[in-house]
Structures are given as structure tokens and as C-alpha cells.
């Protein structure tokens, strides 16, 4: 993850360019991993950093913090955020909690728990805003490779696997040239106030074709922003910026829509944890399109697992 | 896996070009997946195919076999090879059992079990031979990216992770130009006779530098062969042939060896399941080198997990 420079440099800027926010403050790092964000906070002048991590990487974090001589400021705490005790409230929470499609295997629940239990009134969260976007893409080549492939596999008909593949959002890099519509936000998350319940959402979207082309898929991606910074920092995972390890999430449609420039397709994007396996995400996307080349609508169900 | 054409086409050729071996025969497919090998066997004239699979893909396999009208010949059996019952012995066992480094998460144990319990005397196994090879490579660029990276991570010293990374064999594609020695077999497996115990091995190797260059890593890869075919078929996963999903397995050394053309490096490659977690493989590689540029030796331990 550290090798994702776009990601790490955004956090580095957000923290280290703002020593006026960190100097003398108490900081909580939720899911500290190797401890890199905690060390950024030290460099920005934090007085104390509690770095909480429940995976075995915590052993490396301890050694790294010691070797870099931050063990007088950073206290590594092994355990789940929901179960550990801190000596008192903190001024700032920092966390890199985002998953694929923003929410898949994300640690946001733990951040919200930490916020409600440990953040002092007026305290700050880094990042404090997240936005989920959608756009429409043309993807004839990949769809042929990844979906239609199953119609004729070495001479055999395996289209039952095609149907299964269609229900799996594909985490992949989308080329900017494939995007054939505008990009619109479908969900804005204020990390300072959002509740866990609000993360199950159903949000409408309307996309307008920027050119005449086919739509093979709806693509989703996210931004997170650090708006408390003197010069706000945004980490974007969209197709127009530097690639990140989050890539984009591609929801293939059951049919190609032949759209003319200026025509619109509307629908709803919905998401919630799977009831049997809460680590999985159930995603539903509806679309409704009426244009010169026909009128089509459907409700498609996907599962991120 | 089906998208690995090199793999699937090798099996396709081995089976479908040899109807004289399959016509009227009873076949067992160990770990049938989507059922593609079983259907190849049908096309080659098999009278009956038992296709055993313990994962949930078995539901798709059933539907695929039915849709392609082989359900009168292929009997899909859900379960572990070690637990299922067949009506009687089989003439041929087919299986795609190979894992990374040949043995990692491989199904060879199940194939050997099936061989001992169900293969008729004189029966055939596809593939029937496997060979593990090693060669030495120059890999300055990747080593810098993947290993030395940890020495300075955004200004922090994380070299404890470097030490950890050095113990993890890297499954990656090696360019043929990186290979700077000859390629030698270290283990030959006769699937018809090998025992499970013989798969824990320690085998010597000697590699000769083909040019003056640095050695950063020992690379391992494998071939499997179908020697019963009229025209023997070999599926190779080495750096000189078409890439496969198995790629190659790279064992980084603790130091770069500066070898002159014609000099040799010797050692032993050993492998066995980890005693606590038998899905993991413990791999040990020793090297001993004396050349114009010094004399070095060590025993390195890796774990494939």
C-alpha cells in the first residue's frame, strides 16, 4: 500500500504541510499499518500519537517507530479500535480507511466508533470528506474479453459463468478515453457527522452522454478530501488522475446502450452490507434510458466479495 | 484459469489429439473446475468421465456439462477426492493440479490418492511427468523497487520489512533477458510412481554464468509433460515461453553475486509443507560461490503463503 505514491503523498501533504494544526496535539491513527501516517504526524509536531492496529503488521510498526526514534511520541496499541482504551480524548483522528468502491472492506466503521468515543469537541478528522462518483464508459474490448469470453470457451458454451461474472463488479483501471458521459457525485460523506446507518444508501444519478457511443458499464470511484488543511488536499481515485491501487469499480450492464451525444440515462445506485456475510457488499444499480436508438431499463444486482 | 490459453491449449492438444488413447475409456478428472478437461475427454471419445470437484464451481460445471450435452457421459461428483466413491477403476486420470512453484496449494496429493485407489493397472495419467527447474537472474531494477524500497519509505527507515520481504518468494514474470545462467532441473516427478513423501525434497544444483553479470535471485519454474501422447506435449512455465498464470517464482538472495562468465554457483533447493500450516511451503535455498570477485555462501529460508 505504501507503494501507492498518490495515496501516501496526499496524506503526507495533508499532514506535514499543516504543522499549525498538529503542533502540540494528541493524535489517534486508526489502523496504523506500518505507522507511516503516525510518523507524518510526529514530523508535523504532534505531542502524542496513539497508533491502533489489530493485524500482525503491528510488530513491524513497533520496530519501525523505534528505529526512526519516534517511540517517545508514538504509542503503538495492538487491538481492535472498538476494544482498546486510550488515556483520554484526542484532538485529531487520522486514518486511511478507504476500500475498493470506497466501502468494500473499509475501516470507516472503526473511524466513526473512534470519533464518537475519543474525539474531543471541535477535534479534526483527516480526511473529513468523501465523495462517491459515477460515470458511463464504453468498454467493448474488455467486455468481450472478460464477459462474452464465456459464451465460447475452447468450443464450449459456458454462458452460465457469464451470468455470474456479470454480477461481480470488476476492480480495474479505466482509461479516461473510455469515459463517454459526465461524472456525477452520488454520495457525499461528511466523516465528522455521518452515522453508520447512513452508509447503507440508495442515491439517484443522471448521466449525460458527452459523445455518441455505446455504454457498456457504469463506473464508480471516489475522492477523499482534507478540507481543514490550509490548502485543501484531495486524493482522487478517478480515471482522470494518477492511478491508485483502488483503481475504479466497473459495473457491467446487461446490454450495451447506444447513446447519442446529449441523451441521458438515469437510475439509482444502492449499497449495503450483505446480510449473511457483512464483509461482502450488495450493490444494486438501476438504469432507465430512452433515446433515438430505443428505450431500455433494468435493475441489476452485484456483489463485491 | 481458462483464460490461460497456454495451459488450456496444452491440455486440449494432449487429450483431443489422442483419441486412440481415450476412445471407449473410463476417465477420472481430479478437481474438474468448470469441467473443460472432462469435455475434452468426451470429444476424444471417452465412454465415461467422473469429474470430481469439492468447490462451489461444481454447480456451474453441472450446468455447463448439461448445456453442452455431455451429461450422458460426464458424471459430476461433488466432494473431496479422498472421500468420494466411484463404481470401479478408471483407465485414465486427467488433472490440472499444479500450483505456483509447482507445489504451492497444489492438488497433487489428491491425484496420487486417486491413482493409488482408482487407477486400473496399466492406466495412464495426464500429465505424467513434472520437472522443477532453477536458473539465476539479474534483477537490479525489481530488487530496488520491491526489496530496497523499504530502506527509505517517504523518509522513514522500514528495513525490518525488507528483511520480511526477502523471505517471501515473489511470483512474477521474469524476462528471458534477465536469465544470466544455464537452466537446470532440480527435481523430476514421475506422477505414475512418486509417493507423497518424495515431494518433500532437498536437491543440489549447479548453475554456470552465461555472461558476466550480477545474480540477484534464483528463479524456479516447472514443466509438465504428457508423454503418452502420440506426439508428446509439454506445458512449460519458464521465462523462455509464452507467459502462464503460474509465472515464475523468484527467490531473492541476501546479496548480489558478481559472477564472471563461466563461473559457477552451487547449492541446494529444499521444500516441504510448513509444520504448523501445511498449506504454506517452507523453501530453503543455499548457495556457495567462489569467483574472481569473492567467495560467499549462505542458507536462506523462504515461505510461500
TrEMBL record, chains A, B:
Q: Which residues form the Protein arginine N-methyltransferase domain?
A: 128-291
This enzyme catalyses: L-arginyl-[protein] + S-adenosyl-L-methionine = N(omega)-methyl-L-arginyl-[protein] + S-adenosyl-L-homocysteine + H(+)
Give GO terms: molecular function aspect only. Answer: histone methyltransferase activity; protein-arginine omega-N asymmetric methyltransferase activity
UniProt GO BP: methylation
Q: Which InterPro entries match?
A: Arg_MeTrfase, PRMT_dom, SAM-dependent_MTases_sf
- Enzyme class per UniProt: transferase
Keyword line: Methyltransferase, S-adenosyl-L-methionine, Transferase
Taken from the UniProt entry, a GO cellular component term is:
nucleus
Report which superkingdom the organism of origin falls in. Eukaryota
Enzyme Commission designation: 2.1.1.319
Entry protein name: type I protein arginine methyltransferase
Instruction: Give the organism, scientific name.
Output: Porphyra umbilicalis
Amino acid at each position: 500500500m505504501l507503494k501507492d505514491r498518490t495515496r501516501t503523498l496526499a496524506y503526507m501533504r495533508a499532514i506535514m504541510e499543516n504543522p499549525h494544526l498538529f503542533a502540540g496535539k494528541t493524535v489517534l491513527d486508526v489502523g496504523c499499518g506500518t505507522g507511516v501516517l503516525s510518523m507524518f504526524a510526529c514530523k508535523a509536531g504532534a505531542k502524542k500519537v496513539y497508533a491502533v492496529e489489530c493485524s500482525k503488521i503491528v510488530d513491524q510498526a513497533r520496530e519501525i517507530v523505534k528505529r526512526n526514534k519516534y517511540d517517545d511520541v508514538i504509542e503503538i496499541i495492538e487491538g481492535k479500535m472498538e476494544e482498546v482504551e486510550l488515556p483520554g480524548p484526542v484532538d485529531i483522528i487520522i486514518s486511511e480507511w478507504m476500500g475498493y468502491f470506497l466501502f468494500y472492506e473499509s475501516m470507516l466503521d472503526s473511524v466513526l466508533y473512534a470519533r464518537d468515543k475519543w474525539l474531543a469537541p471541535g477535534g479534526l478528522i483527516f480526511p473529513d470528506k468523501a465523495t462517491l462518483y459515477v460515470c458511463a464508459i464504453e468498454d467493448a474490448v474488455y467486455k468481450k474479453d472478460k464477459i462474452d469470453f464465456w459464451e465460447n470457451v475452447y468450443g464450449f458454451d459456458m454462458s452460465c459463468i457469464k451470468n455470474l461474472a456479470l454480477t461481480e463488479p470488476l476492480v480495474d483501471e479505466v482509461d479516461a478515453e473510455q469515459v463517454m458521459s459526465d461524472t456525477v457525485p452520488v454520495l457525499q460523506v461528511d466523516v465528522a457527522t455521518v452515522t453508520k446507518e447512513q452508509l447503507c444508501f440508495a442515491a439517484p444519478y443522471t448521466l449525460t452522454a458527452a459523445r455518441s457511443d455505446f455504454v457498456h458499464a457504469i463506473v464508480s470511484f471516489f475522492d477523499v478530501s482534507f478540507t481543514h488543511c490550509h490548502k485543501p488536499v484531495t486524493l482522487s481515485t478517478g480515471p482522470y488522475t494518477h492511478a491508485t491501487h483502488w483503481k475504479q469499480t466497473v459495473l457491467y450492464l446487461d446490454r450495451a446502450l447506444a447513446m447519442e451525444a446529449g441523451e441521458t440515462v438515469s437510475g439509482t445506485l444502492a449499497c449495503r452490507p450483505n446480510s449473511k456475510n457483512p464483509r461482502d457488499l450488495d450493490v444494486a444499480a438501476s438504469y432507465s434510458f430512452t433515446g433515438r436508438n430505443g428505450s431500455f431499463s433494468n435493475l441489476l444486482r452485484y456483489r463485491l466479495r
